[in-house]
Each structure stands twice: as C-alpha cells, then as structure tokens.
C-alpha cells in the first residue's frame, strides 16, 4: 500500500534518537539544538585514489560546504560471494569518514544497498543479482544477503556517529526507491536493519519530487528529501503539502551530469546551476551538491543505462561538470557556487595540481589479441551452450567462447541471437567481424570441415538504474549457423578487472604481433610523479593499465578522449602503460597536461 499524500509527521517523530546531531521541528533543521543548514557535497571514496581523499575533502571545505556525503558500493567491497567484504586500502570507508571529520566536515552516509550512482549494477553484487531474486524487495533471497552485508558494514558506520565522537550525522534509507517500486515493507525492513545495528543519527529517504515517486519511496516518521536538477520551488511546495513540519532538504542537486559513450559531453551552465542552487537555499533550505567532485570510474566499474532496450554505457570519467573537476581543478563553477554559499576567506587548496609535461611515447605492439588472452591461465567451463558471465562467477571483463562446428562449403549465416553486450567473432583465427544487439549477424565461409569458432564477448557495463538492474551478460541466446544451433562450447572467463602486473606480463609475452589488435606497451620515465592525461590517437577501443592498475576504457567514439591518471599511480623512474586494443592499434601514447572530455552539450535533468 502507498503512503497517503497528506501524511503529517508530528514533532514526536522528528528524530531517530535523542542523541542525534540533526533534528527538526517547525520546518527547520537543528544541529545539537542550534539552527542549522546542511551544505553538503557528494564525493565518493571509490572514485578517488585514497592518497587524494584528504586533498579532495579540503577542496569541498574550500567550496563552502560543511558536510560531505558518500554512497557505499557493496560490489566494490565484496565482488565475490566466497570472499568476505574488504574494508582495507581503497575500500577503507572508515578512514575516508574519519578524514572528513579531521577536516572539520560532517558526513552523510548512503549505504543503499542499492546506490545507482552510474556505478556498475547500481552497487549490487552480480553474484547476487545473477540468481533468481527480486532485487530491491522483501524477497528473502535478497534481504538475507543484505542482512549479511549490513552485519559487516553498519556497525562500522555506527561507531563513527556523532554520538560516538565521529562525524556521521545522517544515514539514508535505500536510494530513490520511489523511482523503482512500492514495497514499503522492504523500506521499513531496511530502516530496522539500520537502527537495530546501532544507527542513531538522522534517517532520511531521497526521491524525485513527484507524487508517484514520493508515494513509492517515503516512510512515515523518516525525513523526506528530494533529488532534482531544476524547479526547486515546485519541489518545496510539494513537500510542504505532504510533510509540512519537515525542513526542505535536497539530497542531490544535479549541477552537472554524466556521459555515455557515443554521445556528447554533458555540461551545466554556471548561471543555470547557481540560479537553481539559490532557489534551494532560499528560506533555509539544505542541499547536497551532486557531484561536488565526481572523480573517475576506474577499472570497469562504470555502469550503463537501458534506453528502450538499447544499452548506453557510461564513460570512464565521472567528471560530471562538477565544481571540482575530475583532477581536482577548481573551475569557474566552483567560484560561483562558493559565492552563492557565502564562503569567505582564503583557499587552502591550489587551483590546480601539478601535471607532467606533454610527451609522445611509442606504443609497441607485443602480442595478438587471442594469443595474449589465452596466455593468462583461467578455468574453462565446457557445456552444450555458452556459459554466461554469471554462471562463470564473472562480474566484469570478457569471456572467450570456443566451439568447433562443422560448416558446409560456401557462405552461411552466423547469428548471435542474444549477445550482451558486444562480441568479436573469429573463424579459424581470422576475424569475421563484430556482433551486438543492433548487428547480430555475420557470414561464415565453410569448406565442409570443422571450423574453430571463437567468440570474445565484452561486458560494456551493468545497468545501474531502472528495471534492467541485474541483467545478465554474455552469449545468452543460441548461436546459429543458418538455422542449426551450435552446441558444445568451452567458455573461459577473463577477469580483466582483477589482472595486475603478472597477468599482463604473460599476455604481453605471448607474441609476436601480426594483426591490428592485441596487447601493446609504452614506457616513460618520471622524475617527480604528477597528474597526467593519457590519449591514444589512432587506436580504436580497449583498456588501459598504468603500472598494473586498470585505469579504464578508451573508445574512439568519444566523447571522452583522455584518461585521467592521478599522480599516485605513477612512480619515480620507469613507468609502464599496457593497452589491450580490441580493434585497431595506433602507434603512440600521448601524455597531455589537460583533459579532453569531448564536445559539450548543455544538459539539465528535469521532472515533469
């Protein structure tokens, strides 16, 4: 059942616990009893190198913010079910929270378990969504897994609440659930899951400012926040009609937007963004700027959108046209937002961090694609049909499928009936072409003998928003030669996101190189490590590692041209860039001192 649109919340239900830092009454927000306004900025620890966390947090403080908010990406901490969640190194969310507190900022935590965030699978582990499970619902198959995850995560967050001397002042219940479903029993269960594990600070939900979304995603007794890119006055009126006692809190103000491969680079004009921000702040409104600093979808963590059945993968950069750019640069939007927030005084952070000087480095082709991939040991599954990523326990990367059908003499139709998302198809080692949902058909020439058929399937990103969350990857439908199904497949998972120096060395050593695709290496020396931006002119599509760290995906269709390489990934002396090129390798790696994210397009997300 849905919550009545005229629900009134009495003062007795305005806080989770008497010790909570944030409370409200009479439409106003208070911090430990004093009038307060949350001025927050989104910054995700999983999108920023941990050696740069403090730098980026200080830049948020320089922006005039008093709070930082972050999602917690479950799949980042526990990519495999058979391994315990990790909270060390880059995954040390507790250190991130403590660092924010040391810099004088409050912290809002948004633990999901679903986060969207243009992050792979919306933060849900693919080992969970690969099952027959109703995600984001009261399905015990889903909630039991969430309980186990929250048993690990939530006590760590509870120990960092203000009541315990930490900086955490608020925790979000789920994330924009009203855009997805209406299972209020699930939301109530999540709220209990938080409080029963020690959360005593302010709890809130966040949804788009429409009746439909608020009906689906809000809970009596829990503060209602909204997410928006424009029209704050309309959102304020809607919330005032539904929750007259509650303060106006915009949990996400979209002052920029993310990008998809093959589209233009989304930007939000400074004047447009600041005008909307001023409308939010009017009459004591509180805000979280999304993103204040976007960071990078390192590795293969970028998500995707499902656009009427067409996959729209998100690019490696998550710059989001934020006030603090992907590399930490303070933009024109930064200074305009800072003025709107009323910040004064000197900046602690430089406007821009040092960069390496521009350079061009030879990119040397070392091994061909299939030979390089096969050189890295991996278990192979044999079955009548191709194994999906999920059957192989693979979250991201590629799968190499091999079959040996007998093909009669002459040309025949080769049809991949359901490939998710993109496949390179080879016959006896020769490339036949590329297949995807838009072009699933190729031609194979037979002689009457057995043909070795190799299909290299690439996952371009798991859907992070809407009913497509949890969709499977791989060769999901039969492969046909004319009308006959090809049976008997060897399926080898290529866990590229887990590769490091050892695997890359094996792949590179599998030469010689005789085709246009495969593994290539560029080497350069550095005196003092500094930021740089990598470009691959002449190369078509593939992946880039820096000193064994998977930086991300490159693709000539843009809009993104350069990949941001932060200084901590480099070392004094020799550095190695390894490129896995899937289509056409260029001959040079460029180190640039400025990003190139593509031709801009003004974009503002609005709700009708």
TrEMBL record:
Assigned protein family: Belongs to the glycosyl hydrolase 35 family.
* Keyword Repeat set for record: no
Top-rank EC class of the record's enzyme: hydrolase
Gene Ontology molecular-function annotations: beta-galactosidase activity
UniProt keywords (A-Z) are:
Glycosidase, Hydrolase
The protein in question is named Beta-galactosidase
Record-listed E.C. numbers: 3.2.1.23
According to the entry, every stretch annotated as the Glycoside hydrolase 35 catalytic domain falls at: 29-342
Domain Beta-galactosidase 1-like first all-beta: start-end pairs: 386-494
Q: Which reaction does it catalyse?
A: Hydrolysis of terminal non-reducing beta-D-galactose residues in beta-D-galactosides
InterPro entries for this protein: B-gal_1-like, BetaGal1-like_ABD1, BetaGal_gal-bd, Galactose-bd-like_sf, GH, Gly_Hdrlase_35_cat, Glyco_hydro_35_CS, Glycoside_Hdrlase_35
Which ranges carry the Beta-galactosidase galactose-binding domain? 521-575
Keyword Cytoplasm recorded: no
């Amino acid at each position: 059942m849905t919550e009545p649109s005229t629900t009134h919340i009495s003062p007795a239900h305005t806080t989770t616990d008497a010790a909570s830092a944030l409370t409200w009454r009479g439409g106003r927000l208070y911090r430990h009893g004093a009038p307060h306004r949350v001025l927050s900025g989104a910054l995700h620890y999983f999108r920023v190198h941990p050696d740069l966390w403090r730098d980026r947090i200080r830049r948020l403080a320089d922006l005039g913010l008093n709070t930082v908010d972050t999602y917690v990406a479950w799949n980042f901490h526990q990519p495999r079910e058979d391994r315990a969640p990790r909270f060390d190194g880059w995954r040390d969310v507790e250190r991130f929270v403590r660092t924010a507190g040391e810099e004088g900022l409050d912290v809002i935590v948004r633990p999901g378990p679903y986060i969207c965030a243009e992050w792979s699978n919306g933060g849900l582990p693919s080992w969970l969504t690969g099952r027959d499970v109703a995600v984001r619902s009261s399905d015990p198959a889903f909630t039991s897994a969430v309980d186990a995850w929250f048993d690990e995560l939530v006590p760590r967050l509870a120990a960092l609440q203000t009541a315990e001397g930490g900086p955490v002042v608020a925790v979000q219940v789920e994330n924009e659930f009203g855009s997805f479903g209406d299972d209020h029993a699930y939301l109530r269960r999540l709220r209990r899951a938080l409080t029963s594990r020690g959360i005593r600070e302010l709890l809130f939900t966040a949804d788009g400012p429409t009746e439909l979304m608020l009906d689906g995603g809000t809970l009596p007794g829990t503060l209602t926040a909204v997410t928006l890119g424009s029209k704050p006055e309309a959102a304020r009126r809607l919330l005032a009609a539904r929750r007259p006692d509650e303060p106006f809190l915009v949990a996400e103000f979209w002052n920029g937007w993310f990008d998809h491969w093959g589209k233009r680079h989304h930007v939000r004009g400074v004047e447009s963004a600041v005008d909307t921000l001023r409308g939010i702040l009017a009459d004591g409104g509180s805000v979280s700027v999304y993103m204040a600093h976007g960071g990078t979808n390192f590795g293969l963590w970028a998500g995707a959108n499902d656009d009427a059945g067409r996959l729209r993968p998100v690019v490696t950069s998550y710059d989001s046209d934020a006030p603090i750019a992907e590399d930490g640069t303070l933009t024109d939007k930064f200074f305009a937002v800072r003025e709107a927030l009323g910040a004064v005084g000197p900046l602690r952070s430089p406007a821009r961090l040092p960069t390496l000087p521009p350079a061009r480095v030879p990119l040397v082709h070392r091994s061909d694609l299939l030979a390089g991939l096969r050189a890295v040991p991996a278990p192979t599954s044999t079955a009548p049909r191709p194994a999906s990523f999920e059957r192989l326990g693979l979250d991201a990367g590629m799968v190499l499928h091999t079959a040996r059908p007998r093909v009669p003499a002459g040309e025949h139709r080769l049809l991949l009936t359901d490939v998710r998302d993109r496949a390179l198809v080879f016959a006896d080692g020769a490339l036949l072409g590329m297949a995807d949902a838009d072009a699933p058909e190729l031609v194979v020439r037979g002689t009457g003998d057995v043909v070795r058929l190799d299909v290299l399937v690439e996952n371009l990103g798991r859907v992070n928003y809407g009913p497509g969350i949890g969709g499977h990857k791989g060769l999901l439908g039969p492969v046909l030669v004319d009308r006959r199904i090809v049976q008997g497949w060897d399926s080898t998972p290529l866990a590229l996101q887990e590769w490091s120096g050892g695997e890359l060395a094996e792949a590179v050593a599998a030469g010689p190189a005789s085709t246009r695709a495969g593994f290539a290496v560029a080497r350069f020396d550095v005196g003092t490590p500094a930021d740089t931006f990598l470009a691959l002119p002449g190369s078509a599509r593939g992946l880039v590692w820096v000193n064994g760290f998977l930086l991300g995906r490159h693709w000539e269709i843009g809009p993104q041209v350069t990949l941001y390489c932060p200084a901590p990934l480099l070392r004094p002396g020799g550095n190695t860039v390894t490129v896995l090129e899937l289509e056409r390798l260029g001959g040079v790696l460029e180190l640039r001192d400025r990003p190139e994210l593509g031709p801009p397009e003004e974009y503002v997300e609005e709700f009708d």
